[in-house]
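Many introductory courses stop at the sequence. We go one step further.
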Amino acid sequence: MTREDPLEEREPYRPRRRQSPPPPPQPAFGSPGRQAAGAKGTAGVRQTADSLDPVSLLRGRRNAPAGGWRKLVFKASAGLIKPGESPEVRRRRELLTRARTPVATGHHRVAVLSLKGGVGKTTTTVGLGATLASVRGDRVIAVDANPDRGTLSDKVELETSATVRDLLNERQQIKRYVDIRAFTSQAPSRLEILASDRDPSVSEAFSAADYQSVSQVLENFYSICLTDCGTGLLHSAMSGVLGLADQLVLVSSPSVDGARAASATLDWLEAHHYADLVKAATVVLCSVRPRSKSTVDLDRLEAHFAARCRAVIRVPYDPHLEEGAEIDLDRLLPATRESYLLLAASVGDGFGGPQA
């Protein structure tokens, strides 16, 4: 019997693999399969921790109506009778889901523009931004890019006198979110405002390069940036706004001259290589005056823009908006709040990526 040579190479150690247990025997076809106690209706379904959700375990929370006669019936029957949700509740939930669409790219820029003044462009910017900020968990900011003393700062209670020019001059010092908050004002809805200069001679110098520099700062701290543009398509900052925009919101009054100006804006955009933005745009028909005897066919007007853009939203007249002061969502009429939620849902459809 010879001894093994200690210098002889040995086969390297190989760990033993754990053998998977054999699958349980399957009952023959037609034999009655027994279910474990309490597992009724779950045969063949793999159970995980996600299966233990509040809706399935808490009887009182299952399909509990939010209000109206459905809620009364649900409470009177101690939860035994579940009428289900009304179409209005389901529709609102669907709109909220669309408005809360995660921003796929991390930062999304929406340009709100109009070729004609006095049609509710700035009001629409704040209404849309406040709605998005109030229903989402991320940060939303609105920037005033109007070269002629924009009125965006009049729509919220200012917390600082700083402007977009101040942020531009100090942008190298901004490292954290708390730094940028020194230049913005926040509304109760959580929407933040970056105001423009009140001196038109200074704000006119705000160029496309300046807007791009400000945008580079904002994209590090906000998920959504709404830009309240000026009424001219050829002013200094507009090329920078359109060059960076992911989506457009075009505001028009439901009148002949307002609609023509809005449609001419679309013509100009298509002629200057922004056809993709036009197709994905949302048009807002904003009624800035009380109900009148106007003979404008709103259905035909809506059909015209629907054929050119992705969506058309009507915003009714609201006395709170007519005041021209700070906008409070709680003071808006229900129909106005509904229209802004519909607008937020339409804009939210673009957060997930390019629209087909």
